[in-house]
Write a structure and sequence with these properties.
With about 250 residues, the protein is α+β, with helices and mostly antiparallel strands. It is built from 7 helices and 15 strands.
């Protein structure tokens, strides 16, 4: 709770700064922290938006803007880098993040890292771009060449969902979780009680929590799912649902 209170206090400080200077932005927030700030921050003097540098970004900066100041310039808040390496080499998100941390870079100064075949892209605070380009030359044993690209060259994050159709007795968290991952209601409730389940990026220990269309579920050790659609009622009184499973 103290960490959350500190986070909100920091957001208040940024809002005060935006009132005076026009715009202020946090470092990169996790999806859970962004959700927390979005739900609890109350500040009418400035507007609040979340931006990760490209559409679909998971890690975002909280951007506070004085309405009298105008719009903010994304290029002042984000830098985009491309990391090239040999196609025969394989690098994942953890490999690149580990190489960045080894350079002494703090996690909240780096946004999303997206790995592709033969290259990866990342978003960072603008003041870090030169340091990363000069010093990030390898990840493990794989050689890298970092260069700056435009924000418009970043690929939008698109995750394919494996859709499954099912029926549930209700839209309670334990019922939808059971259908999503093929678990018994009892096992689903146990996972929720154990604190292994997050709902819309926030931990949830309420099995009876009612879900709505678009709800995002995450279970440590099992994966993530989305309640894509809530349909009609079957003849047996059950609710038709379409659930999307993220690639695992």
């Amino acid at each position: 709770m103290e960490q959350k209170d500190y986070l909100l206090g920091h957001m208040e400080d940024l809002a005060d700064k935006a009132v005076k200077s026009g715009c202020a932005a946090s470092r990169f927030l996790t999806p859970a922290d962004a959700q927390h700030v979005s739900g609890l921050f109350k500040q009418k003097r400035v507007s609040l938006t979340f931006d990760g540098g490209f559409n679909g970004a998971e890690r975002v900066r909280a951007v506070f803007l004085n309405p009298d100041w105008g719009e903010y310039d994304r290029d002042l808040l984000f830098a985009a880098l491309k990391l090239d390496y040999r196609r025969q080499d394989t690098l994942g998100h953890r490999d690149i993040l580990g190489a960045l941390m080894a350079l002494g870079i703090e996690r909240d100064t780096i946004g999303d890292i997206v790995s592709e075949e033969g290259y990866a892209t990342l978003v960072c605070l603008p003041e870090l771009r030169g340091f990363i380009i000069e010093n990030l030359t390898k990840a493990g044993r794989v050689g890298l060449k970092a260069s700056e690209i435009g924000l418009d060259e970043l690929p939008a994050r698109q995750e394919e969902l494996q859709i499954k159709t099912d029926t549930v007795a209700s839209l309670r968290l334990d019922a939808v979780l059971s259908a999503a991952f093929g678990l018994s209601r009892t096992k689903a409730s146990e996972l929720i009680s154990a604190g292994r389940v997050s709902l819309d990026h926030m931990p949830c220990i309420q099995s009876a929590k009612e879900l709505s269309e678009g709800a995002l579920l995450s279970v440590r050790g099992l994966g993530r799912a989305k309640l894509v659609e809530v349909g009609g009622i079957s003849r047996k009184g059950r609710i038709f649902v379409r659930i999307g499973l993220f690639g695992r």
